Fold this protein.
Amino acid sequence: MNHFYNILRYAKPYKNFAIGHIISNVFYALFGALSFIALIPMLDILFEKKDKITPLVEPVYEGLSNLKDYYKDYLAYQVSLYTDNDPQKALLMVVSLIIVLFLLKNIFGYLANYFMVFLRNGVVRDIRNTVYKKTVELPLSYFSEQKKGDIMTRVTADVSTLQYSMLPALELIVREPLTIIFTIIMMLLISVKLTIFVFIFIPLSGLVISRIGKSLKRKSDRVQKEQGITLSTLEETLTGLRIIKGFNAEGTFYEKFSDSTNKFYHFSNKLLNRQNLASPASEFLGILVISILLWYGGQLVLVDKTLDGSSFIAYMGLAYNILVPAKAISRGLYNIKQGDAAAERIQEIIDSPNLIKDIPDATSLKGFENQIEFKNISFKYEDEYVLKNFSLTIPKGQTVALVGQSGSGKSTIANLITRFYHVNEGDILIDGININNLTTSSLRQQLGIVTQDAILFNDSIISNLKLGKQDATEEEVIEALKIANAWEFVKDLPEGIHTNIGDSGGKLSGGQKQRLSIARAVLKSPPIMILDEATSALDTESERIVQVALENMMKNRTSIVIAHRLSTIQNADNIVVLNKGEIVEQGKHDDLINKKGIYKKLVDMQSFE
């Protein structure tokens, strides 16, 4: 239930709708209870109890103990005044009263639902937005330990589970308890004995129903986790479909997917059958209580003569009226149990600590003036250090290339300067300021990133390029495309810069996608550029075109180039050779070649991985 209260916090901005909902439900419950009490004088008329329905004098209030008789006599007195003691007119008037009461009940019922629509949908929207916002704020290290499909399930399916299981319980918080309270008051007015008898059996039936729902949270949690695995498998299949087909692995992935859906099938069956048991069980127990009431109430009418027939019939209507909200509450409790698992999974994301957070008095970096300095950096992703006592100074305007075999720590340096990860030891300084003391947004505003995989989005070319500069004009976009050698193919597209490039830029070649990535970085126009193996995935011809684009982009900028091929780095101001997280050589291309060390071997192998 703690997670249910967490969800209720999201209802705070919608308190006006909540107040409207509560007020409407108060009147809904009140008129619902009164509509059954109004049946008593109508039944008295039908049973020809004229002594009770046509008093000649106005009744006198004698206290709570006689409130029921006072109400009946007063209503009958008013009816007799306006109908001249004509039973047909009296019946018509009482029926009209009942119609009005039911009409008012349903009007307020509609208003309660009307306000709840805004409250419930607003809460769902805010939860989704909160989860998505937290998802994009979390550091990359969080996602290396999570399955993308599971996160997608939490943002989509789990929030939908809340929408259709836990959040409908918001409607029950006021309406059903009030209906029960008002109904009980009316029942007590009719017969205290019968009401006490009712309260002996209702808790017993409630205990049975609650035992049925005890394991719902656990079963629901298994269903949602398996749904995440299913979605992860689907996401991996769509991403790697080319490899799956190329290695004839369709059968392997089908087995993996079908195994997950089979588990989902069995878990869902158990969950839904447990839910399906709730309704018939509660209905049977309800009818059992009604049957016992009929027997005991009949004794009070026929044997004890302490209750008249019309009051007993109205009482039975009230008793049934109390069963409807009681069933709704029990069903709501089942739903809360199911939704609690979804809420817990959602809350896990919301409560996940964000290690890459700005300190309280973080400085905003306005520009880049002097140098970047790595001072004795050590870093590990898990247990082993991938960088050890790494120190390097990069003056403004210089191009520094990082080379070395896979696992030597090249890409880690790019991850650290962009604050995708925190250093374990040492400091990274820009113009003498530790980047941990800068606001993350102002730091990244000074950086442009071109990665090995050209990450583009299913949108137009202009929208992809304006990612880092939303106010860019079309002329600026075209100029950036020209610098990146991309305008030559963009201008020939059907809609030019407004052409949609498909999912992950699937309508373009590898070289075209990379040139758009470069154009995006050019348009942002940052003083520091990070090129993470930007040409490693390209063929020779595409590499040549992209290399020209990179050289255009790096003019008058400070660049950190993580190198894969010789052509990318041979003109660098400083080439830093890494081996197992440590600098083993550094200098210009020709100087390093003459040393005939590790760099010379790498050049000979053409293997800057």
Notes: The chain has 24 helices and ten strands.
